[in-house]
Amino acid sequence: MKEKKNLTLNYVSVQIGLWTMYAPLMGYTSVFLLAKGFSNTEVGLISAMGCIISAILQAIVSGYADREKSRSVKSILIIIAVVQFALAVMLLVLNNNFVIAIGVIFGALIALLQLMVPLANSLAMEMMNQGKKINYGASRGTASLFYAIFVSVMGLFAKGDDLRVVPLATILSVSILVIGTLLFPFRKAVRIMPVEVEHKVESKAFLIKYPKVALFLIGAICAYVGHNLINTFLYQIVVLKGGGSVNMGVCLSLAAMFEIPVMFGFVYLLARRDSSVWVRVGSVGIMLKIILTLIAPDMMSLYVVQVCQMFGFAVFVVATVYYANQAVEECDRVKGQAYMTMANTLGIVFASVLGGVLIDLYGTNGMMIVGSVITIAGCAMIFASTVRRK
Fold first, then answer.
1. How far apart are CA 337 and CA 170, in angstroms?
2. Residue 7 CB: number of other CB atoms within 10 A?
């Protein structure tokens, strides 16, 4: 039987399972935990701690996955997904008397979700490095489309304090991920390396080994801070521009609408320019979005600003996956994907903590001014640190 060379259809289910899981665990974090009796401050702490723990685990797990004698990325992803399934079942059966346990489990679910992202990305990149065809952008764009559908459907079932839909949706998503990963034809690359050389490579810290990548990651964190400040505090921004919750929903829909076509067509962009070019373009788009959001005088202007999603976040988030694959040596590629995901994770943490404090001290405009400065600095670091494919 002839082995398939194009694995895009096989990979789509992996991405759908992964990103639909973001709907219950990230989209409904506040709604679920507030209904369980947590305060807004506690909700923020649970989310932030989950992301911080995930950032630590990403470095540890990726370091293990890059070793010659480790389990394959596919096996590690399935193991983590099975643990995720068990935690979601526990969340479903626990009642409101177990508040602390619910908080701990939900934080663990967030941490493991973030941990699975670089592993899923490495799954595709490894097979592409072996000559198989995978349209990563199309797979990621399809996942975004399913995420939008998933969030909308969940809203129909989330009634009052009955939010069983959150663990149930998590169970469904992780089941899709497990099945998709099991069916994905993955082969771990064989890298024959003398023991003394392998030990020397592993003993050298990743960020010291790749100083330009280290600078790029700091820039990416700054860019993600700007992106997540808008996402996390969009309601406050919309109110400032004279809108309400309905207008916020329109902004989110427009952003998603502009985002998906670019992800689908990213393979054509990559055929024309190296990924190092597109990470720069994406960083400029993110920078422009927060600056234009700051100066937009009304809701109609804010709607127009959502066009920036097309050449901002949509380009950046896909381009970084390809860039991580080319900016490091073969023996460090899983770590490269992990550090790129870690940058996004830390961007969420810093934006969540920093944004609330800035709004309390200086108002929503003050928050966006500081966010703009941070994003401009991040864009400059990305331009200074990107390296072209050899």
1. 24
2. 22
